[in-house]
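Because discrete structure vocabularies remain unfamiliar, we turn briefly to a single example record, giving the amino acid sequence and backbone structure tokens:
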Amino acid sequence: MSFVHLHVHTEFSLLDGACRIPLLVKRVKELGQPAVAITDHGVMYGVVDFYKACKAEGIKPIIGCEVYVAPRRRTDKVHEYDASMYHLILLCRNEEGYRNLCCLDSAAFTEGFYIKPRIDKEILRQHAGGLIALSACQSGEVPRLILAGNYEGAKAAALEMRELFGEDGYYLELQDHKLPNDPVINQGLLRIHQETGIPLVVTNDAHYLRREDAEMQDTLMCIQMGKTVDDPNRLRMETSELYVKSTEEMAELFPEYPEAMENTVKIAELCSMDFQFGVHHLPEFKLPEGYTDGDAYFQKLCEEGFARRYPGNPEGYRERLDYEMGVIRQMGFVDYFLIVSDFIGYAKGRGIPVGPGRGSAAGSMVAYCMNITDVDPMKYSLYFERFLNPERVTMPDIDIDFCIRRRQEVIEYVQDKYGADHVAQIVTFGTMAARGAIRDVGRALNIPYAEVDAVAKQVPSGPGALHITLDEALKLSKPLREMYEGDERIHNLIDTAKAIEGMPRHASTHAAGVVITRRPVVDYVPLAKNDESVVTQYVMTTLEELGLLKMDFLGLRNLTILDDTVKLVQKSRPGFTLADVPDDDPEVFQMLSDGKTSGVFQMESAGMTGVCVGLKPQNIEDITAIIALYRPGPMDSIPRFIACKHNPDKVRYKHPLLEPILSVTYGCIVYQEQVIEIFRKLAGYTMGQADMVRRAISKKKKAQIEKERQSFIYGDPERGIAGCVPNGIPEQTAQDIYDEIEDFAQYAFNKAHAVAYAIVANQTAWFKCHYTREYMAALLTSVLDSSEKVAEYIAECKDCGIALLPPDINESEADFTVSGDNIRFGLVAVKGVGRGFINEVLAERQRGGPFTSFPDFCQRMSDADCNKRVLESLIKCGAFDSMGVYRSQLLRAYESLVDAIAQNKKRNLEGQFDLFGGGGGGEQKPPELRVEPIEEYSRQDLMAMEKETTGLYLTGHPMDEYRALARQCRAAPIGSILADFAQEGGPTTYRDEQRVTLAGVVASARTKTTRSNTLMAYVVLEDDTGSMEMLVFARVLGEAGPYLKEGVPVLAEGRLSVRDEKAPQLMCDRVRPLEHVKGSQPPAEEGGKGRRLYIRIPSLEDPRWEKIRLVLTMFPGTEQMKVRCADTGKLLGTPCLVHDALIRELQELLGAENVVVK
């Protein structure tokens, strides 16, 4: 007897199902079962992955879903009546069934979502074709009615379903999970079967693979509900029978009903649904009026663009355009290019900033001529085949950067043009990574946080361990392995975490992906709803496999900054545009070489700054190389790259033919395009063939890499490849070149993408260099939601001699603006004052001139939403300081003034004024402001008000008078610690558990009682670069409690603590008020072996010291550099890599006599 599981929940029944698709299919194969179904709760997220996994193992896939059915209509959402939905299993017989299931499941989200995605019987009747239904588990309608004692109702519901789905389309599910209600339900189902002839089917509500996985699945449900396993009031599965059972185990459950077993196979035979992969379903481009032929329109756009981009028609350029157009036509992608060109044209026509290009599309001349990109592929030696390879038919991939503020307008244009039902955003899944899985399981198992934290922190993190698994972590981390082997609870914690790591945790919306389809999206894939976004239930890669057109509409903050900067520059240079920014300005490259990279796109991390200082870029090619090299992997070749740039005699080419290819990168292989060109020029590969090899090397396909070595060296006549040796290149030289290609190609970067981003980097750097105030104003406007970034950029302004002026009701605009030699704070950034009100203020100022006094402002704005809360915020931030009245006086007087204006308006409305004497709004004289003769607030109080209303200290900082003392105590700037940990590749200067000293002002403090009934405090400490939370436990709190009050400047010492999901905290073990600190310098730390580098410097105040620190960030290592300070005689130490390029840089800075290596 054979059997098929028809009721199975995979990991896509999020935090409930625990049958991982690949393991499920392998288990079914082990059990000798011919087919298996997927029936996740209310979703179809996993069906394509499931289908492919089944096909790979020779198992028949049955596509299905356990849908939720609303008790009334799907649009009814009243809790008392509609919270209790019931389940129904639906399986696809064929493609009609799949389309109907997609329709049903999509409507469940877009129309019926209430607690869960729900359908109703009305829509089920419309879309029952091609589907088989099963009565489901205890939560099905028929079982529920049986349990409620309503047998006749259950029988009527079953007959209704049979009538809908047909004689062989509806089955009653017999299940025995050893649950108390199972016998009652099964007796009722058997009676219905006997009385109606509705067939039976045996199923098991499989949520996990093996009986022993029950505990793990229980933990998974606790994570979903935020409960602990020992919580007596939580929902739990009261059985361990919900696993993928063998045929024998299933046969034992209902031996007297063998037909119920046979029906599982019968249903499997009735279901036959196949997906089509690799067939493109491109949307149809809607041609402008007057055009009927898409191909002719494409030709016209390309030719017009070519004439505009290349007016001199350089030799060979037209042939390249014709070649590209030919490939695009041959591959059937003309409409694709027209669609992209159209919405980019729409964006540019409406002044929405669009990036110069992104990814390999920047290598296309057609894209350049159609205004899709602004990168000239000929100027930068970029290849079309890296984007569209005629020898590998795949969908082109054009990702576009838009101004982050207006990106949605472009998406709405596409929705309007092609129809909202033809456009959808794309789902993505957050998965449980190694550390996160340990923390989630630890919470569910109720293990104390400190113990779980200690375990999680032993999982390696950082650039080389981004996707590390727990199995890999156990091999790499000895402390983790010792914990695992030495403590049974930790062993269980890690085993459970291993079982769930990598599972999807939640569904969200992809940040940029948009799909556009020829027919409505739901005809191809099911839809879901995340918040208000309609998304596909399949991820981006699956959509591409199904042949749908996917594009990334990315929001790039820097394009918004550039747009704002251009508008500010236009005030002094009318007619100025972004196209006026040169790409060869030596002053810009000098600024970057000096390490002044704060706020420059792609360049502002400490590591990037260090590379700029070491490399000293002199053209946009150097910037392109920096962007390409500063990533894990190629980073190791940066010192060689720098050394070769500064010493051309060190550049070695293994063969003269390599020089024209590699000279732009000083003999180093940096770009994928260079790899392609080496294969082409030295061995005679076509562009397409060369790109295929490049892909194989980047994906580390060993067999193909070795096979290509032979073709590269000796040739391959069948494919028309000449080979290096027949081309006159010595065999050993060819071997050496191939070895280098293999080493570098796996890290080589797409030059087209690097060039596009280098262009944006150059533009931001040019503005920072030549229009510093305008650029910094735009930059500050863009980062208002990040106090750390605001503090960093304000500090940068100070370094450039630019002051940040406080808000002023007559001088400020909505956003940050240039005011003389300084920057003026924008009014929109004042808390409690909305952009709508500020726009009215600006309009009134434009109409009636500057406000002459505080009463004049209140009178003229009385018709706007000028309430007392708004006025209080504006007074506190200093917006009326220029009116000659103290903030203290205004805060006492403003309420009575506003009341008097309101009374006047009321009397005016009641007609008590002379017809000509009043009621003219702005012309009516405002009431007099009665101020009390009181003193202004203290400087500390004024700063506190500014902080409260703007989030910043504007006229000073409480730490101003303690800066020298903080330096003397070697306090680390909080902003530098936060920025270091925020780097994409992980910290480079600081580390978890490192001891640090901080100096700052207490911004807030709150106490909490711990489990051991002692008191602790959460204290936010803030300096002028950022803020950090400190954890102060009982002992320190007892000593320092009186100082931990808002506004008190303190010196705090302790260890950094970094949890995965949180910013760094300080575990504080000493706090002293700065007033009491006499400041003594701690001794420099010793340590490190190997070569030592000694330098002599007059003092740490010497401006060259800051530059040296930047250079050191490029040379991380464990060797030592010792610094002798001439003024104090002290010897300080810091770890580094003692590299020739570093030594030469230091010798240039300090003179050879002050640099020694021992």
